Amino acid sequence: MKSNSLVSIVIPLYNQGMYIDETLESVEKQSYPNMEVIIVNDGSNDEYTLEKIKQLLRDGYKVIDKVNGGLASARNYGITQAKGKYIVALDSDDIIHPDYISKCVEKIEKTDYRIVYTRALLFGHKHGMWMLPKFTMKKMLQGNIIYCSAMFYREDWVKVGGYDEKLRSGLEDWDFWLSILASSKENTNIVFRLNKPMFYYRIRNNSMLRKIDLDKKKKIFEYIYEKHKQLFELYSVTPTANLKNNFHVRLLNKFLSIIYGLFYHVR
C-alpha cells in the first residue's frame, strides 16, 4: 500500500523572488500526492520579491509573514504552521526531482530511519555532482554532510526544540541534524542517503556561507562543539580541524564532481 502521509514543504523566502518560481515548479511536479507548501516571507524588503509574494498569494499559495530573523527562525516559524508528519525545509532557490518526495517517504516509512535524503547535483554558478561523503557519524561531526532539505519527522523537530535561532550566519542545519542524532539512542543508524541524485543545489556567487570569514566560521564551529560536546568527545572529533584546507581532497572532489556531472543534468 502506498503511503498517504502528509508532507509539509517549508520554504523560507528572503529577497530571492527571482528564483522562487523555479523552486515551486519543481514542487508542483512531485509525483507524491499529499503535500502542503508553506512559504515563509522572512521580512523581504526588495520590491521584486514583494510583488512576487502578492502573485503567489493570488495563485493560492500559503505565504506567512514574519520579521526578518534568518533561516533558522523562518524554518521554525513555518514548521509551527505545518501539519505534516514529515518535513522538508526547501530553500527558495533550490530544486527537487519529481520523485524526490515519494522516494524519501517510501524509504522513511519502511524503515527506522529518521533522516532521509538523496545524492545531489550542483547548478547555477557551478555544475556537477555535489561530492558529499556517505554518512558516518565521524564524518558528520567533522562538518555537515547532510544538506538542509533532507526529510525528517516533525516530532523530532519538536523533540529537539527546532533549529537554533542563534545561528544566523549559517550551519544551522548541521546543528539541527546533530541535535536529532544526539537525541537518538541509535544515532548511527537513523540516516539514509538514496544513491540517485534527486536534489539540485543552486550555487550563487553571493551565497551566505561564501561570505562567512574564517574567524566567524571558527566561532560557529566552537559554539556547535560546545553545544554537542558529549557527542564530539564520544567520537574523538574536534570540528575546527575541518577548517584546515586539504588541497588534494578539494581538487579530487572538484574533478569527480565534473565527471559525475556529465551523466546527470537538472530536470
Explain the overall architecture.
α6 packs across α7. The chain has eleven helices and nine strands. It has one domain (7-261): Spore Coat Polysaccharide Biosynthesis Protein SpsA, Chain A (Alpha-Beta Complex). The chain is an alpha/beta fold. Strands 1, 2, 3, 4, 5, 6, 7, 8 and 9 form a nine-stranded mixed sheet that branches. Mean pLDDT is 88; it is low at 244-267. β2, α2 and β3 form a beta-alpha-beta unit. The longest helix is centred in the last third of the chain and has 15 residues, at 247-261. The protein has helices spanning 17-28, 47-58, 71-80, 100-110, 137-142, 154-160, 172-183, 208-211, 214-227, 229-234, 247-261; strands at residues 7-13, 35-42, 62-66, 86-89, 95-96, 115-124, 128-130, 151-153, 191-203.
Strand-helix topology:
Blueprint: E1 7-13, H1 17-28, E2 35-42, H2 47-58, E3 62-66, H3 71-80, E4 86-89, E5 95-96, H4 100-110, E6 115-124, E7 128-130, H5 137-142, E8 151-153, H6 154-160, H7 172-183, E9 191-203, H8 208-211, H9 214-227, H10 229-234, H11 247-261
Parallel strand pairs: 1-2, 1-4, 2-3, 6-9
Antiparallel strand pairs: 4-8, 5-9, 6-7, 6-8
Helix pairs in contact: 6-7
Radius of gyration, taken over Cα atoms and rounded to an integer in Å: 18 Å
Number of domains: 1
Residue stretches low in confidence (pLDDT < 50, at least 5 long) are: 244-267
Classify the helix fraction into a percent range: 40-55%
Estimate the strand proportion: 15-25%
Task: Please tell me what the overall shape is.
Answer: globular
Specify the CATH class: Alpha Beta
Look up the CATH topology: Spore Coat Polysaccharide Biosynthesis Protein SpsA, Chain A
Per CATH, the superfamily is: Spore Coat Polysaccharide Biosynthesis Protein SpsA, Chain A
Mean pLDDT: 88
Quaternary organisation of the protein chains: single chain
